[in-house]
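Look over both lines before class:
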Amino acid sequence: MPGITLLGLGPGGADLLTRQAWAMIEQSTEIYLRTRQHPAVAELPDRLQIHSFDYLYESSASFEEVYAQIVEQILELGERPQGVVYAVPGHPFVAEATGPEIARRARQKNLPVRVVEGLSFLEPTCTALGLDPFPNTVLVDALELAAKHVPSFPPDAPAIIAQIHSQWVAAEVKLVLMALYPDEHPVKLIHAAGTPQQVVEHLALYEIDRSTHIGLLTGLYLPPLGPGTSFEAFQEIIAHLRAPDGCPWDREQTHQSMRSHLLEETYEALAALDQDNPRKMCEEFGDLLLQIVLHAQIAAEYGEFTMADVLQNIHAKIVRRHPHVFGDLQLEGVQGVLVNWERLKAQERAENGKAQASLLDGVTLALPALVQADQYQQRAARVGFDWPDVQGVLDKMEEELREVHAAEDDQQRFNEIGDLLFAVANLARWYKVDPESALRATNGRFRQRFAYIEAGARTQGRAVSDLSLDEMEALWQEAKKQY
């Protein structure tokens, strides 16, 4: 009768086939294999007519294309009066792209589907490793992982990465993992688990693509990076702080009470950036992350939103605003990206009922004035409101300076000095200098140089106020040679 039998060949030789699988093979006259490259195939009955889809791997551009063609052909074969037996390595639903899709499509066609279980690659792999995969071992497909830029699973959990079937795949997987794991991280390659040819190699991560044993039955065991290395573990710590058995101080905090801490940690992170100090950056970014996760935890408790909402919203926004990366839009250079960015944001404002809102409304009023000026000018420039060249900016600065000199009262002088500072911020933008960072750096140098003057006065047994202006200037010039 019509229908599809999905049969698991197990992970190794025929001795690892289930009794049910062997019974089905014995009563069948023909069988379709996803691939002949499997140890059990050589032990199948001689009278059995065997077909395979190995030829598709040689003629198709990608595995996805191979699997799509296999699915279509098996569905067609399943509609024959005698149906079809389709056999795959391992288990039909474990690390097998075609099995679940065939079953799904067959249900849509009202085609009967029978699943004949088989041992998957997991059981002999865990035996080879002496490993119980519970409670949190992650299962990863090597080809999917190789297409990413960073690992897609928490690093404080162990992982089994299946289908490392070539040195090329191993090299691609290695590069993705090394974005997070140290080069020397100890790993294990498991080859031909469950067969007499089984080999377990103990290697450093950077060595895995050098293995000479890599083949169709190779997997990778990746031990955890260590406790406290995942975002999820950090969320758990913050939630514990807020729990009834947590910290009394943390339990009392609200969005408003934490506001000053968020601002303080932001400035400390900026200070680490100003110092170009990686160790301090690492520490301060952690402190800043603490504030964000704590606010998200408070919001979750209040029923406002969760961390998943935060991540999903920013994920969607980044993808939406980068159609030239995640879509097929073609843009010319950075300026093209910025112009399209503003176009997308205008579209978002219209969709949110704020079509009449100003381009500058998105710049928060809480920013320091110099940063705010820089942001205003950057946004205006994106839509063409800008000088044609830097000379226009320099002329504007000279004009504003003359107007400061010409001011007739304090209010005019106040306004004109503001205009001059605004023009200076614009000059910084033209030269691609962050004005806030530049001024902070200058403030730091002034502090060091003035401290040099104070130290010079102390060595003379005098107060700074006792020094003449010429004496201060002499010490200042000495300080400039050092700072």
User: Anything to note?
Assistant: The longest strand covers residues 186-191. The CA atoms of residues 130 and 396 lie 74 Å apart. Strands lie at 4-8, 30-33, 49-52, 84-88, 113-116, 138-141, 159-162, 186-191, 199-204, 218-222.
